[in-house]
Amino acid sequence: MKDRRAMDFDDDQRLVSSVLASRPAPDVSPGFLARVNARIDAARDEGWFGLTDFRVWTLRLAPAAAALALIALLWPGTSSAVARTAPSPSTIAAPAAPAPQRFMPSSASDWQRDVTANALLEAALRGSGEGRAR
Amino acid sequence: VDPDRELVEAAAGGSREAFDELVRRHQTAIVSLALVLTSGRGDPEDIAQEVFVRAWRSLHTFRGDSLFRTWLHRVTINVVRTSQTRRGRLMRVFGSFDGEEGPPDQPSGEEPMDTVLARRQVIDSALAALPEDLRTAVTLRDLQGLDYKEIADVLGVSVGTVESRIFRARQKLKPLLAPLLRGR
């Protein structure tokens, strides 16, 4: 059986509880729901605004970039057009054998073992003369 | 059984109409809770709106382990805490805000105590005088009508802690609520 003090405590607790429970609820303004919906919509729009972030762009555009690269490779005629406008690597790596020349360029004569000093001087003089003639 | 279950499921599936109904059902309770927890500092409707926006965004994370009402109260407490932290930082930088209401004033003896506003002012003023942990616990119990288990879930503490906080809160409130206790 509870003693008197404990019962007083219980009464106090109940009394305070009943006063708190009687607190009138505040009035919510009539436009509350509309403002909640507006904020939800605004938050969604902010999500789209986030697309201006370059990190989002680079990530989201990666599949599109890959698709464009694939189309460029597989598109009929694209590779032949490239071949027409630029030399292929093999053309650069393996030039056709040089045709026999009537005059040896002065620079080429520098690398020949059997060239004499006179021949070298003659080639140099002829080379400078060719340059002036052009 | 959660009375909001069907609406919550529909809203989680994207139904704005269902969510609107949930807002209508709980808006008064959430505004009231925000009003008490902020002790008159800040706009309780603004906080309540933020609660519902967060609820809409995170509805897919609500697993139904508790009542929707309980979950919503937890969201409210988190929003209030975030708001108070932000406000505290601003206060440290800029000082007090102009036009801030502050805790509700104790009405003078001449005011009629039977008016709705005066009654609410006395109660809000008394609650504002409590430490935050006691105020939150007793508010959830006596104003919001949550049971002890729900409050323990909301606050993340044991039921025993909830009982202790509510008991101490009511003890502290008794002298502060004296103007309203006289006629009882």
Which secondary structure elements does this structure contain, and how are they paired or packed?
The complex is a heterodimer of chains A (134) and B (184).
Chain A: H1 4-21, H2 32-49, H3 54-74, H4 78-85, H5 89-93, H6 106-109, H7 117-133
Chain B: H1 5-12, H2 16-37, H3 44-58, H4 68-94, H5 116-128, H6 132-143, H7 148-155, H8 159-176, H9 178-181
Task: List its salient traits.
heterodimer; A: about 130 residues; mainly alpha; 7 helices; about 0% strand; rod-shaped; B: about 180 residues; 9 helices; about 70% helix; globular
Explain what the structure shows.
The complex is a heterodimer of chains A (134) and B (184). Chain A has 134 residues and is mainly alpha-helical. Chain A is 68% helix and 0% strand. Chain A is built from seven helices and no strands. Chain A has helices spanning 4-21, 32-49, 54-74, 78-85, 89-93, 106-109, 117-133. The radius of gyration of chain A is 46 Å and the shape is rod-shaped. The termini of chain A are far apart. The model of chain A is unreliable at 52-56 (pLDDT under 50). Chain B has nine helices and no strands. In chain B, helix 4 (68-94) crosses helix 7. Chain B has helices spanning 5-12, 16-37, 44-58, 68-94, 116-128, 132-143, 148-155, 159-176, 178-181. The radius of gyration of chain B is 18 Å and the shape is globular. The N and C termini of chain B lie far apart (36 Å). Chain B is mostly helical and 184 residues long. Classes of the chains: A mainly alpha (134), B mainly alpha (184). Chains A and B meet through helix 1 and helix 2 of A and helix 2, helix 3, helix 5, helix 6 and helix 8 of B.
